[in-house]
Design goal:
about 25% helix; about 40% strand
């Protein structure tokens, strides 16, 4: 999973999520591949604003099989709304989209 190199983002991701957070989430998937070697086709990221004045966010990265969950604190380059994001790999490409776009 997530080895095909064809990565896409939805319009919602493009409009709502700062590019530095998008890159960070792709990197987290790559790190998970390197650490566990076993990555689910569905990666879930939950972004919550911790401090609006400093653009600090909490990112929870999880997957169901095998069970995985890790929490990150991150200072974004610009403000970001609280969002749930799915990254889905179908074998030919990987797509990052807002949960409400699914």
């Amino acid at each position: 999973m997530f080895d095909n190199g064809n990565r896409y983002v939805s319009r919602g991701i493009n409009d709502e999520i700062p590019i530095d957070l998008q890159i960070f989430m792709w990197q987290l998937i790559e790190e998970l591949k390197d650490i566990t070697g076993d990555v689910d086709y569905l990666q879930v990221f939950t972004i919550s604003t911790i401090d609006e004045s400093e653009n600090k966010v909490r990112i929870i990265h999880s997957q169901e099989v095998p069970e995985y969950k890790k929490i990150w604190m991150f200072k974004a380059s610009e403000p970001c709304n609280d969002e749930k994001i799915f990254v889905i790999d179908d074998g030919t490409h990987s797509t990052m989209l807002l949960a409400d776009e699914y």
